Amino acid sequence: MKKMLALLLTTGSLFSNSHASDYPIVLVHGFQPAQLATRPNRFEVEQDGSHYWQDYWLPKASARIDWPSHERITGRIVSDYAWPVLQQLSRQGTCQNGCIFITHSTGDLVMRYLLDNQALWLENAGLEPLNIVATLDFAGAGGGSELGDLAINVATGSSWIDAALRFAVSLWLGETPSPANLGVLNDLRVNTARQLAAFPDARIPRIRMVAASNDYFGTTGLFLPGTDDGVVASHSSCGASSVAAFNSCSGQVGFDGKLSAQSKAVTSFMPYHYPMLMSDNYSHNGILTDRQRGQVTLARASVNLTDQTDYGFGSDDISAGWWIFRSTYRVVRGSDQFSMSELVYQELLD
Questions:
Q1: Which of 6, 17, 152, 222 has most Cβ atoms within 10 angstroms of its Cβ?
Q2: Rounded CA gap, 227 and 241, in Å?
Q3: Are 298 and 330 spatial neighbours (Cβ–Cβ below 8 Å)?
Q4: Would the pTM of this model clear 0.85, i.e. be above it?
């Protein structure tokens, strides 16, 4: 009885009738390292979920899926936390006319598993599947993170672990992990993540916002292949179908916006994964804030959503430099004034 009451209180408080976009917004947060040690209860998970989005997206959302990082995706994250919210969204008709899910980091991986299964789960429960027109994935970790593999190695005490690696992992997690506190880190291992709903049936476009700066003094990037955002390598955040040391999500433009052939760009993507915004001014964590950190460029101009609407951004090609050193850069309009989150909201949702 107490468990059921807590569930009703938790899920009931996730929803409001107010949203500013044409479609209701549902938020799915990312990995929260502190939860590995604190192992929060349901109420604390909800509080952490609210805090996660408070800098920008929280008041714009109609619902959230809050989940604990000390659990596994195919275990309690789905059964105890995501599934009740999916049912309530269906019963309330929140997505009847379409809705948009916004994810960050590991939320991208959680969402891929949900997209692959939500229709069947809800139909089997006698409920209407959710009409999801798109997901907007910020710094997505759907392809896993090499830091997840390294954290597992540190926790299990592999003999080859050196001090630099331990330091990088501790910067990311805030502490040195132990075998008893790994949770969703197991799912973040690259091979494990890429086997989770690797080829989803749901034909829902996954629009990706990709960062290429670092919050950890460049330390964590030493252990990530290619260009990274401090936590996730570009093979994961771009949505690449394979793992490699990629330097861009586009073959024609770099993370800094420079128009030039990218020799190590992603050329093959996971089904319905579309990188759109890129920037070397935003980091894995900074990409969600409401702080303008620098100009943003385009990996692609627009994407056709399931409602057959084209959503996209305007940009300008600007020359910079002197004489033979002059180059052309593609810059998203407004990115010199607004944060990436604000750009996404203005152009895609408002």
A1: 152
A2: 16
A3: yes
A4: yes
